[in-house]
Amino acid sequence: MKLSLTAKAIAFSIALGTLPAMAIGVSNYISASNNYRQNAIQSQESLAFSLADKVGRFMFERAGDIRVISRLPILNNPEGTKEITQQQRQNVLDGFMRIYGVYDSIAVMDLSGKVILRTTGETSTNLADRDYFKEVIRTKQIAIIQPRKSSNGEVTVHLAAPIINANTGKMIGVVRARMPVKSLDSILNEKIFNASQQTQQVGSSSKEYHLISSDEKFFAAREAEQVGRDAKEDFASFVKMHAEKKMATAIDIDRLDKSEQLVSYAPVPNTEGMPELNWSVILAEDTKSVFAGQQQLITNLLLGTGITLLVAGGLAVLFASRTAKMIQQIANAVASSSTEIGATVEQQERTTTEQASSVNQTTVTVEELGAASRQSAEQAEASAAGARQALELADNGSKAVHQTMAEMSTVRDKVGAIAEQIMRLSEQTTQIGSISDLVADVANQTNMLALNAAVEAARAGEHGKGFGVVAGEIRKLADQSKKSAEKINALVNDIQASINSTVMATDEGTKSVDYGLRLAQGTVESFTGVADAVNHVFLNSQQISLSAKQQAVSVQQVVSAMNEINLGAKDTAAGINQVRVSTQQLNQVAQQLQAIV
Fold this sequence. Notes:
Layout: H1 5-70, H2 73-76, H3 86-100, E1 105-110, E2 115-118, H4 131-139, E3 143-144, E4 148-149, E5 155-164, E6 171-180, H5 182-199, E7 208-212, E8 218-221, H6 231-234, H7 238-244, E9 248-254, E10 259-267, E11 280-286, H8 287-290, H9 292-460, H10 465-596
Antiparallel strand pairs: 1-2, 1-6, 3-5, 4-5, 5-6, 7-8, 7-11, 9-10, 10-11
Signal peptide: 1-23
Subcellular location: Cell membrane
Keywords: Cell membrane, Chemotaxis, Membrane, Signal, Transducer, Transmembrane, Transmembrane helix
């Protein structure tokens, strides 16, 4: 289906208005999208690093807590605090636990592991088999044990420190504090909440944190059901990031809920003066939430393009309608003018055609007269040409006969030379036969000598065997020489017979050449008479041709004048016809323009 000019103009105007806007919009979207994506990644990495740093500092404070507790006078100076009762000592520990608010149990053991002091609610009596007790006894340093489930079902972290006697400097016991991991959950949730308030970023509250212990398992997470799961089973990218021990971010699939997430990894920093934790933090969020702003960018781009399309479309319709109306008026005016011009041109064309017809009739009559004159001249010319050709043929024939005579004389000389060569060849052939007979005689004699030598060799016995073999070979060669001589004799006889035949043929050829020379001499005399007669005819034909040519030239001048008149009339007719065709084409263009508009 063909579109009208108006529709094409509207489409072009809309494209001209919207395509640049779309190109700019797409370019801006790509740039803004990349910036948004980079900012989102940097923001999440910053938060992950902040969480890891918060955990590190929190555990450093807890190490300070256990160090302070181990240095309480009621623990490290038993001699100076004898007057303090057991209940008062317990009240002191309960007060510390209440003030810190992160512990659920504190216990003091002697060097045998027996519990000698504990906070309210603690029921243990001997902790000698616990890993933290053994670690402190072995190293005499603060120990922080990796998170694990306690007897009450909660995931806890145990911190232990040696109790050093303030007077003697010797270790006299071990103090242990048990910290539920939910204390870390509280500070991490608070940190994430504060970050979401500061950035006011949509979706920040959906971030999921995971604390990972040295055994690469989750010991704290926003979703409680993830605690205890293996980190590398949930996030495939964890293996590489954990091996590098530095901040990293990747797009990964959470194998628990099969969602695509932006995963940021940050190792928990170790502080001097405390045990190495080897913990790390993973902060994850669904990519749909992280990059939600990109969808808003697309929406804005489509909305802007739509508005531009509507505005451009309205302007295009207005512009195209006005332009089409103007073109329609011009097309109507062109069509009317071309019709009037066409009628005038047709009248002039008929008049010119009649004039050209009259000139053509006159030209035809004169051309017939010219044709008759040219025909007479051509006939006279043809007669002269025939006479000239006959004269040339006679001359050529005479030359050919003379040349033939010369060639025949040469042939006769060569035939004589061939005869002499044949005679020499015959003599040489006879000599070859004599030599061949001599070779045959020598072969017979050699054969006889070889036979005698063989007989002598046989008489000589063993000493003559070698000579006998040689004699046998010589005899064979003599037989072969004899046979070859016989073949040569046979060939010599054949050659001699051929030579005799050639001699006879040469004699006959010499006789034929002599006879041909006599005939050629008679032919030369006949050609001379013919040439004289033809030359007379040629002179008469030239005179007739000259007169006919003069008459034809006069007639041709009249024809040329008439042709010039005829050509002028034809040129005029052609010009008028061209004007008529151009007018018709102009009319067709105007009609097409009207149809398009």
